[in-house]
């Protein structure tokens, strides 16, 4: 297989595309991250989610520190080709760096406040290496 399939993606000016990780089976949206061509190619080749970390300025293999890898079951693009959807099996049940199952744990309540609606499953200090 050639890399021509990557040409169907509408990369932004920085060569990135938003990528949404969705839990296989439940349909729960776990997180949103960014991918460049290499990250998407590596994700396809390895079957494990690889993203582009804008803060680190490098490829980020999901779970490289936490062990909470995402095994990719399917890759899809939206109708415009400008968003990638990864259907994944989330290892360890934690996708968010806050120690929660997913990154969408705040919901706007009737008072206009962001309420936390999902529990911390594991203290982040016990998940990640601290410098």
From TrEMBL:
Reactions it catalyzes: 1-(5-phospho-beta-D-ribosyl)-5'-AMP + H2O = 1-(5-phospho-beta-D-ribosyl)-5-[(5-phospho-beta-D-ribosylamino)methylideneamino]imidazole-4-carboxamide
Keyword Acyltransferase set for record: no
Cofactor note: Binds 1 Mg(2+) ion per subunit.
Ligand binding (Mg(2+)): 78, 80, 82
Cofactor: Mg(2+); Zn(2+)
InterPro entries: PRA-CH, PRib_AMP_CycHydrolase_dom, PRib_AMP_CycHydrolase_sf
UniProt pathway: Amino-acid biosynthesis; L-histidine biosynthesis; L-histidine from 5-phospho-alpha-D-ribose 1-diphosphate: step 3/9
Domain of life: Bacteria
Residue ranges of every copy of the Phosphoribosyl-AMP cyclohydrolase domain listed in the record: 31-105
GO MF entries: phosphoribosyl-AMP cyclohydrolase activity
Subcellular location: Cytoplasm
Keywords annotated in UniProt: Amino-acid biosynthesis, Cytoplasm, Histidine biosynthesis, Hydrolase, Magnesium, Metal-binding, Zinc
Broad class of the protein's primary localization: cytoplasm
Enzyme type, top EC level: hydrolase
Claim: Magnesium is one of the keywords in the record: yes
EC identifiers of the protein: 3.5.4.19
Residues the entry annotates as binding Zn(2+): 79, 96, 103
Cited function: Catalyzes the hydrolysis of the adenine ring of phosphoribosyl-AMP.
NCBIfam families assigned to the protein according to its UniProt record, in alphabetical order: PRK00051.1
Name of the protein described by the UniProt record: Phosphoribosyl-AMP cyclohydrolase
Origin species: Thiorhodococcus fuscus
Gene label: hisI
